[in-house]
Amino acid sequence: MAAPQIPNLNTLRRGTGPNRSFGRGRGAPSSSLSNHLKEEDEKAKDQIVQQTDQDASISRLGAVELGYLDDPFAKLFATGPGQRKFPIINRGPRRQIISLGAGSDTRFFRLSSLRKSQQQQEQEQEQHASPTLPPFVYHELDFPSNTHQKITTIARSLTFTSLISPGYTISEDGTSLSSSTYHIHALDLRDLASPTNPSALQLERAVDRNLPTLLISECCLVYLPPDQADAVVDYFTKHLFPPSSPSHHPPTNPPSSQNTQQKQTQRPLVLILYEPLHPYDAFGKTMVRNLAARGIVLQTLHRYGSREAQRERLWARGLVGGVGVRTVDEIWEAEPLPDSLAVPGGDKGEVGEVGWSVGIGEKERERVGALEMVDEVEEWRLLAGHYCVAWGWRDGKPPPGEGGGCF
Q1: pTM score, two decimals?
Q2: Which of 92, 149, 138 is nearest to 111 (CA)?
Q3: Would you call 45 exposed, middle or buried from its count of C-beta atoms within 10 A (0-12, 13-18, 19+)?
Q4: CB of 314 closer than 8 Å to CB of 250
Q5: Chain segment 78-98, per-residue pLDDT in tens
Q6: Torsion angle, alpha carbons of 232, 233, 235, 237, to 10
Q7: CA dist., res. 154 & res. 139, Å (int)
Q8: Beta-strand (E) ranges in 171-321?
Q9: What's the rounded Cα separation, in Å, for the pair 47 and 381?
Q10: H/E element holding 230?
Q11: Phi/psi of residue 19, each to 5°?
């Protein structure tokens, strides 16, 4: 699964870094004042991260208007007109999906609209087979300020509410939404680092542990300190969806493709990450420096800034069925396998890397290539080579020949 777009790192203009200086004066600040200033500093940093969602929303709308994406819902969440980016910026079953830091993402509505259309077509054709897209339940997690804004937009639009199952409820403070198919949870992901935190307990009650589950983090965990980001993933892989065997401890290193087969009985669990790579080369250093100037710090990048680090990260979090990493450039150039072959174990990657074959395909490349003229091909490849999609899974691998993958 490719991310909706490649973030425009050169146009993250919202917010400025919380850099404040104070004169020495005649005396040092009191401890209470120091604590207050520290709290205000942390709030400012959180707000900068929260505001990146609107940057992404406006960029997504620009990509829709140019024809890169088919997303009729993007304009309903954007707070301003779509921004046209340089062409290189735009390229870029019952089941359960949990999206971390979802913001104004419209994936639930796009999937629901697609499924509704498929069902209508089947009824018109008097076919009784299940729709191509199986039923699903969708959970979104984000800061209360972001969820409140999203829910306000949803509640006043029949376009959105018609796609949510009947009987949905909104919390009194307007920050949470719940229905049988769609949930918006107002919480700080850092609260999940402690499974006994009230936010973690609330999410635990809402999530169905018996469903095959896909976790999505699109440039979300990268904003957390590495240990906190790991703790968030552990909440899902080791607490909410614990391994089949209580005594399971993943080995230190990922296995080779020859010994990844494991007999598992638990429902499938998959994590897909979209994150930057390579902070130490010239482009990476520039990327980090430009974002830091705007108060945006990619906190996990230096620890997980390589393919191998991403693979080891996923394996250490208990995703022992297999792991894979592909740069956006590689995904753009690759050809997808037929659905019948696109199952775990079908990826001919490096030793120790197993996964789905991920590729855009020639037809889609031709379609996107016709939208805008791209002169900066080498620049595009440089940018695309600094972002990756990494994935890992555990349990639920289908027997050979069945196809369909975990999901």
Answers
A1: 0.70
A2: 138
A3: middle
A4: no
A5: 566 655 544 443 443 579 999
A6: 180
A7: 15
A8: 177-178, 182-186, 213-218, 269-276
A9: 32
A10: helix 226-234
A11: -85, 115
